[in-house]
Amino acid sequence: MMLLVVAVVIAALGPIAHNLISLPLSPLAPETVGPVLVYAGLLGWSLRSRLGSASRWSLAVWALLNVVGGGIVSALPLPFLPFVPDQNLGHHLAHVIYSVAQLPLLAILVGPKSSWATVRGPS
What does each C-alpha distance from 32 to 12, 13, 19, 49, 99 come to in angstroms? Predict the structure, then answer.
């Protein structure tokens, strides 16, 4: 279970790092705290349910949403976005950090069963 906790902490640091690097936001801004609270809630559910299927997949979907939506799509100057993201190296590196931070959690949750069985611990 400790491996799962560490992976969730790393994943939650992704949006925090992005917001501190790229946006003029306080670390306590809703845009920063909100995703962390979702990670904390899903982690609590996962630990309580001994990493059952629903909680495991919910965490995986949340991490994947952060990779695709937060790490990739929101970095691109797409016409449907309600903002125009900066197109500079620093901002793109912040999005790389955001995305890469999700990968350990995704690897644990959707990797071979042996990897999440290890996270689960003995039955």
Answer: 9, 10, 7, 27, 15
Number of domains composing the chain: 1
Estimate to the nearest angstrom the gap between the alpha carbon of 62 and the chain centroid: 7
pLDDT tens track for 69-115: 988 998 888 888 777 778 889 889 999 999 999 999 999 999 876 45
Query: What count of Cα atoms within 13 Å lies in the side-chain half-sphere of residue 1?
Result: 13
Containing domain of residue 79, as a range? 2-120
Q: Hey, what are 64's tokens? A: 């994947």
> Tokens 């799962």 map to which residue?
4
Assess contact for 119 and 3: CB atoms under 8 A: yes
pTM: 0.85
> What integer pLDDT is reported at residue 114 of this predicted model?
46
The rounded distance, in Å, linking the Cα atoms of 26 and 57 is: 31
Provide the pLDDT for residue 121: 59
